[in-house]
Design goal:
By secondary structure, the chain is of the alpha/beta class. The protein is 32% helix and 25% strand. The chain has one domain: Vaccinia Virus protein VP39 (Rossmann fold), CATH 3.40.50. The longest helix has 10 residues. The radius of gyration is 16 Å and the shape is globular.
Length: 199
Amino acid sequence: MNTVSDKVKSYYRYHALIYDATRWLFLFNRKKAIEKLSIQPSDTVLDFGCGTGLNFKYIMQRSKNLTGIDFSNDMLDKAKKKFPGVRLVETDIVSGKIGITADKIICTYALSLIDDYENAVINMKNHLRSSGMLVLLDFSKLYGALKFAYPLLDWWLKHHKVNAEIPYEKILKKYFRNVNVETFHSGYNVIATASYPLE
């Protein structure tokens, strides 16, 4: 089943050319999210929605057992050129089967692009060991001092096919024993940590 629209694929075919040069401007907290995983040298790590591999250098400082997963062949081509030793799999997050059971999974700024985000969480959960951990880094809803700017941010995100209102804590508590959700920059982004997947 194809869970990624042709429009989204076309979007990333173009953005693969400029992704690395632009995303540092607004996709924050990658290192912080990876630190939450507490990766050990022996851990097997999956990076779902890995794009051009912006997480790879931080993960590989901790473990070399890394597989990157993305639906966009154009994005993976960029990742392959930068990190030729990393195993890459072209498939989608919702239904793709990687054939690996991981200790740790990271998914940064990808879940918010998926309409069927709950089944994406289930699929990632199904790739974890019983003691495994999933960390999500993504957009969230502004609050506090920046709440006034949310309508403009929401318009901009939706223009780029992004949903900033995923109920991370509610969904993760259905599928994991331990869940912690932290917001940053007045809700601009969120890091959700989930461990010990439920059967």
